[in-house]
Amino acid sequence: MSQFTLKGKTVELKKPSFEELAFVQWLWSDEETMKSSGGPITFSEEEKKRWYEIMINPSNGKHLYCLVYNQSNKPVGEVSFHQYDKITKAAEFNIKIAYAERGKGYGSEAAKLLLDYYFNKWNGEIMRDSLAIDNIEGQNTVLRFGFDKVYTTKDEFLVAMTKEKFNRIYQKEAGK
């Protein structure tokens, strides 16, 4: 697998090797990290292999999954997009930062790096994120970041960001 990397000031996004999925297994099974996302998730070795082939190597062209590494080259979370639709040019956003690593700016920088790639290299037009209705912290985080609320149901809080809005907010910030 060729190494895919996006570098920022405090984080680096990298497609993981199969061996690095041990971190993903830990992240998804960590009670504190996952409590706002519906709770811990475990998967078997067979599920891990299948997931890796679909999401990472070689991928089916609808996903980009990366681990988030800090400046010490330690994984601190994940960021990805899924289910890219070539017709609507829309995908689903995902980000998880380990509970103990939150509040250090990793999530915001990782989101900016991935969304810049998605909108300006991948040529996506819309990024959506569906959050649990009781995940108030996550809802506030994505709204502060610049996503707009689309709708709320009894189970879901849906937000979206367009390429135009992302570039208006973050390209100006980057001096582009």
From TrEMBL:
Pfam families: Acetyltransf_3. Residues 11-168 form the N-acetyltransferase domain. InterPro entries: Acyl_CoA_acyltransferase (IPR016181), GNAT_dom (IPR000182). It comes from the Bacteria. One of its GO terms (molecular function) is acyltransferase activity, transferring groups other than amino-acyl groups. This is N-acetyltransferase domain-containing protein. It comes from Heyndrickxia sporothermodurans.
